[in-house]
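Thread: Newbie trying to understand structure tokens

Hi all, I'm a second-year student working on a class project, and my supervisor (Dr. K.) asked me to get a predicted structure for one chain before our next meeting. I've only ever worked with sequences, so writing a 3D structure as a token string is new to me. If someone could post the tokens and maybe explain what I'm looking at, I'd be very grateful. Here's the chain:
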Amino acid sequence: MSIYLHFRAVAESQIRDDHTWLAAFMFEAWENDDAEYAAGIAHSINKGWDAVNDLYAAADALYADADEPWNLPIYGGRPVSHSADADPSDPPLMLLEPSGVSQAARFLTTVSFDELWNAVGAKFSALGWTREEHLDHHRDLQEFYGQAASAGHAVVKAVWA
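---
Reply by user tm_fold:
Sure, no problem. This is what the structure looks like when written as tokens:
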């Protein structure tokens, strides 16, 4: 079974802070993922997003004086609560507002992937995760968040199982 963390950049003025509406929006975005990925407004990580977050967590120790939070790219944002009439099978959703998107983009462009990997790579390699796959995730997230920040967009995140 595959499980994905799906990211979708969108103008804040075009979204509603309503779980049912956002779930429908994200479902439509998921159905159009290939086109939206090509357009630079969507991204997804299959299963391994927690490991990507663990990679970024190394920044907490490496850059103790850093102003930018390392948890924004993966888990950043606020949960969007289910309303009383929401379908309980709708995915968990998070909303990262434009200021958080900008912070995430800055973090991803300023953090040294090599320093992060040097701090945690041995542990990751022992678990079968490769440097190349994490570098690919990092580069993809840099591009995605960079484009979203440049456009002043928010990012909605959904977990699909």
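A couple of things are worth pointing out once you decode it. Residues 102 and 150 are 8 Å apart (CA to CA). DSSP finds seven helices and five strands in the chain. Feel free to ask follow-ups in this thread.
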